[in-house]
Fold this protein.
Amino acid sequence: MAAVETAMSISDRSKARRSAFFGRRKGHALRPRQAELFDTLLPRLAIELARPAPSDLALLFPNPVDSVRLEIGFGGGEHMIAQAEQHPRTGFIGVEPFVNGMAKALAAIDLKNLSNIRLHFDDAVFLLEWLPPASLACVDLIYPDPWPKRRHWKRRFIQDESVAAIARILRPGGEFRFATDVPDYAAWTLKHLIRSSDFAWTAARADDWRRAWSGFSATRYEAKARREGRAPCYLIFRRTGDGARTPNDPRRRTTDRARDA
Ligand SMILES: C[S@@+](CC[C@H](N)C(=O)[O-])C[C@H]1O[C@@H](n2cnc3c(N)ncnc32)[C@H](O)[C@@H]1O
């Protein structure tokens, strides 16, 4: 368990910086095997933010990968692990500050012997700052903490600053994918992404946001939502720039249309 405490105290030192994490970091005590993986496997997979990022993120992985994706707040890792199994030639970076979630993901990575995952055990904000510009093909944010009370909305992960941070690290044409079962958070996210000139919402019909994207693997939060009769909402936004918006795209910025007229 030494690694858990060390990693958490490093994060405490950075509390002076703006953080987007407001949840708890620890739940029930880890089983001995989970604690052991914190000491053995996490140090091998953890991304060292103290060093500069490589210019090509593929270099973070031991085997060749064609592109790299990020999942923010992966919880128990169900979606990230399934994606990594489905796409062995893609590198995945997962970030999660909750000890018990990280422990579950470590156990699955170990069991399935996955070599295409790297991890960050802290607030995603610090990782977003570290990642090079235009370095990722996709960023996933699945069932983020909803913070339903109005006075807590400022704690939601989606804010203008985080939208800009995600835009910086996505390559043109890359995707930001978001899922929630909280209608108000879906509307909040749409509002923030639509007012960003860096993204275009890809939905053309209702089923595009009512149905999960291809390859989506449901997490425990999705299972709970469906059990309790809440309909999830899936939003995909494409990073614009360098021809990422098609000439007839009605979501193009007015300025783009005026320039091309
Ligand atoms: C509601 S849970 C959903 C977990 C997972 N995506 C799923 O669908 O099962 C939200 C997760 O986001 C994590 N989280 C919250 N703020 C975060 C932040 N600033 N950086 C990284 N993860 C964060 C929490 O620790 C928690 O595990």
